């Protein structure tokens, strides 16, 4: 059964890769380059063509920030599919108490690849996709500060992904390489003692993704600081750009530390060093290094989504964001405090109680800046002229799920509670309410909000609302039972739970609810993929430069002015002739 599941997973991934290659070939006609001033011939979509190559050559050589953003997005969605298939298989295994579907080995390998994929190959790249495409437009810049470095940062990701997935992809070939079974935290001594070369591939792939993220962070910092238009000051810089700036600073400080720790772990595995051996630096050294990166990583992932919600939610509330300055200050506070709470992941390791108490205090205090944002979002909606479009629904869903994820996190920050809930499904539920219930919802809101900007077409609104409701129901049906499992002491990372004594039937019922929720979630994402692809190819063409009617509330922004200039470059009747002058183009 386990071998069959591996072959099916490999076949599905191969099909997805072929689908991506087909998609790249079909988008050759999408010409979307920067609008120019008078005297330059415009291409099919109203942009200067510059005679760039077409087909694969274009995508392999481009340094245009919008092209790079689209490639980041395609890569992130492929990774999302990989991680989603892995979790559906794991939930199918957990629907019954015995580990009789996948087996413990494959379950552990899928657990490892799911966590790392969703964090490093989906979470960070999908935010980079949105940032690459939009940051220059939002701040009035021509492009990123370092376009070639921008492209290099992306092209480090595909080989990194192949290395991370290498063990699972190569295992069916029977050449002695298997999927890594370390979980996403890669704790020694387990990660050192496994002779499987798939662990080495995983560590090398993670290192590449870290280098990619660091290069991108330096680029975003330089772009936001130095490339802003004259009318974009620190006092009116949009909230999304603020959060990307703070995220980039976090990455610059956190990811190099992870890279150093990965190199040390590779040396321990292959060259006989003892950085993390029991008789050397000790396994706890890895935990300190990893979580000093790992907890800022949570805010690296959640800050830009907070910025997206702060940016999009007011557009459909008919008013400006309440308390702009306080949202900015809370963003800065989260960026700083995120580096002072890493040891709350280690309360159960036996550290000095005085040190443990100080980390508990900071871990509870870090909830305050997030609470400021949450109250500001709610106040912005209060007595507003709400329009329940798909982007707005996902923003509201973000706030709802983030409150649950945040409150459960405050409970886990308390040492006595954490000692009971540590390494149980309560931790899994808390984390996923933030990752899936909040971060993914903000990303979906952004995709729907800027879909006309990306494609010049409008998505199917009814399918988008179906996507929201299936995602909302699926998220809570999947993760709320996990909170109850955690309170009953169900440990995470177990493929089976056959018990001679204990609440086996209770565990089974809750796991079956969670598995049903996972399938509802998967159905929602299939609708999302269908809606995006079909609408991108055949959706109704947007002819209004203000598709969301933002001017009526005085809430229009730079990117929609850019979009309006784009539309003015095409002849109204859709003919082949193009106006060679763009009034006000830059």
Automatic annotation (TrEMBL):
<keyword id="KW-0813">Transport</keyword>
<feature type="domain" description="Cytochrome oxidase subunit I profile">
    <location>
        <begin position="59"/>
        <end position="548"/>
    </location>
</feature>
<feature type="transmembrane region" description="Helical">
    <location>
        <begin position="244"/>
        <end position="267"/>
    </location>
</feature>
<dbReference type="Pfam" id="PF00115">
    <property type="entry name" value="COX1"/>
</dbReference>
<dbReference type="InterPro" id="IPR023616">
    <property type="entry name" value="Cyt_c_oxase-like_su1_dom"/>
</dbReference>
<feature type="transmembrane region" description="Helical">
    <location>
        <begin position="326"/>
        <end position="345"/>
    </location>
</feature>
<feature type="transmembrane region" description="Helical">
    <location>
        <begin position="390"/>
        <end position="411"/>
    </location>
</feature>
<dbReference type="GO" id="GO:0016020">
    <property type="term" value="C:membrane"/>
</dbReference>
<keyword id="KW-0408">Iron</keyword>
<feature type="transmembrane region" description="Helical">
    <location>
        <begin position="151"/>
        <end position="170"/>
    </location>
</feature>
<comment type="similarity">
    <text>Belongs to the heme-copper respiratory oxidase family.</text>
</comment>
<dbReference type="InterPro" id="IPR036927">
    <property type="entry name" value="Cyt_c_oxase-like_su1_sf"/>
</dbReference>
<keyword id="KW-0679">Respiratory chain</keyword>
<dbReference type="InterPro" id="IPR000883">
    <property type="entry name" value="Cyt_C_Oxase_1"/>
</dbReference>
<feature type="transmembrane region" description="Helical">
    <location>
        <begin position="110"/>
        <end position="139"/>
    </location>
</feature>
<keyword id="KW-0472">Membrane</keyword>
<feature type="transmembrane region" description="Helical">
    <location>
        <begin position="357"/>
        <end position="378"/>
    </location>
</feature>
<keyword id="KW-0249">Electron transport</keyword>
<keyword id="KW-1133">Transmembrane helix</keyword>
<feature type="transmembrane region" description="Helical">
    <location>
        <begin position="431"/>
        <end position="451"/>
    </location>
</feature>
<feature type="transmembrane region" description="Helical">
    <location>
        <begin position="505"/>
        <end position="530"/>
    </location>
</feature>
<feature type="transmembrane region" description="Helical">
    <location>
        <begin position="68"/>
        <end position="90"/>
    </location>
</feature>
<keyword id="KW-0812">Transmembrane</keyword>
<feature type="transmembrane region" description="Helical">
    <location>
        <begin position="6"/>
        <end position="24"/>
    </location>
</feature>
<feature type="transmembrane region" description="Helical">
    <location>
        <begin position="463"/>
        <end position="485"/>
    </location>
</feature>
<dbReference type="InterPro" id="IPR023615">
    <property type="entry name" value="Cyt_c_Oxase_su1_BS"/>
</dbReference>
<protein>
    <submittedName>
        <fullName>Cbb3-type cytochrome c oxidase subunit I</fullName>
    </submittedName>
</protein>
<keyword id="KW-0349">Heme</keyword>
<feature type="transmembrane region" description="Helical">
    <location>
        <begin position="298"/>
        <end position="314"/>
    </location>
</feature>
<keyword id="KW-0479">Metal-binding</keyword>
């Amino acid at each position: 059964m386990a071998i069959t599941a591996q072959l099916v997973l490999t076949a599905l991934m191969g099909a997805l890769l072929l689908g991506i290659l087909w998609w790249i070939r079909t988008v050759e006609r999408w010409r979307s380059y920067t609008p120019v001033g008078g005297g330059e011939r415009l291409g099919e979509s109203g942009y200067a063509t510059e005679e760039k190559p077409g087909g694969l050559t274009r995508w392999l050589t481009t340094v245009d920030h919008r092209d790079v953003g689209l490639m980041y997005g395609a890569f992130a969605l492929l990774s999302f599919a990989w991680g989603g298939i892995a979790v559906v298989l794991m939930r199918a295994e957990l629907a019954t108490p015995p580990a009789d579907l996948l087996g413990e080995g494959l379950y552990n390998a899928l657990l490892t690849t799911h966590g790392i994929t969703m964090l490093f190959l989906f979470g960070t790249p999908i935010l980079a996709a949105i940032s690459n495409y939009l940051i220059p437009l939002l701040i009035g810049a021509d492009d990123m500060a370092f376009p070639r470095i921008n492209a290099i940062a992306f092209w480090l990701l595909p080989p990194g992904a192949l290395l991370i997935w290498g063990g699972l992809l190569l295992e069916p070939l029977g050449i002695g390489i298997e999927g890594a079974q370390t979980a996403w935290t890669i704790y020694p001594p387990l990660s050192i003692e496994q002779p499987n070369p798939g662990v080495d591939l995983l560590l090398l792939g993670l290192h590449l993704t870290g280098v990619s993220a660091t290069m991108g962070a330096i680029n975003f910092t330089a772009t936001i600081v130095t490339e802003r238009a004259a009318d974009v000051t620190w006092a009116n810089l949009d909230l999304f750009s603020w959060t990307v700036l703070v995220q980039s600073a976090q990455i610059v400080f956190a990811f190099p530390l992870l890279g150093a720790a990965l190199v040390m772990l590779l040396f321990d595995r292959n060259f006989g060093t003892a950085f993390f051996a029991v008789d050397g630096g000790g396994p706890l050294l890895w935990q300190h290094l990893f979580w000093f990166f790992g907890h800022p990583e949570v805010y690296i992932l959640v800050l830009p989504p907070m910025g997206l919600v702060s940016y999009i939610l007011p557009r459909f509330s008919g008013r400006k964001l309440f308390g702009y300055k306080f949202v900015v200050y809370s963003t800065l506070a989260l960026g700083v405090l995120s580096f002072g709470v890493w040891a709350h992941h280690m309360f159960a390791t036996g550290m000095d109680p005085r040190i443990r108490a100080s980390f508990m205090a900071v871990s509870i205090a870090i909830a305050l800046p997030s609470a400021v944002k949450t109250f500001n979002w709610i106040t912005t909606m209060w007595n507003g002229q709400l329009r329940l479009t798909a982007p707005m629904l996902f923003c509201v869903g973000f706030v709802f799920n983030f409150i649950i994820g945040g409150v459960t996190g405050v409970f886990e920050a308390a040492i006595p509670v954490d000692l009971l809930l540590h390494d149980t499904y309560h931790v899994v539920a808390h984390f996923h309410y933030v990752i899936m219930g909040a971060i993914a919802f903000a990303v979906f809101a952004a995709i729907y909000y800027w879909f006309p900007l990306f494609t010049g077409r409008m998505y199917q609104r009814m399918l988008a609302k179906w996507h929201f409701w299936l995602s909302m129901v699926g998220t809570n049906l999947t993760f709320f039972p996990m909170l109850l499992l955690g309170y009953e002491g169900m440990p995470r990372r177990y493929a089976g739970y056959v018990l001679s004594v204990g609440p086996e039937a209770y565990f089974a019922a809750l796991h079956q609810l969670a598995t049903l929720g996972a399938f509802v979630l998967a159905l929602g994402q299939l609708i999302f993929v269908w809606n995006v692809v079909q609408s991108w190819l055949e959706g109704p063409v947007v002819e209004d430069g203000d598709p969301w009617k933002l001017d009526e509330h005085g809430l229009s922004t730079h990117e929609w002015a850019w979009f309006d200039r784009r539309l003015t470059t095409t002849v109204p009747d859709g003919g082949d002739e193009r106006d060679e002058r763009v009034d006000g183009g830059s």
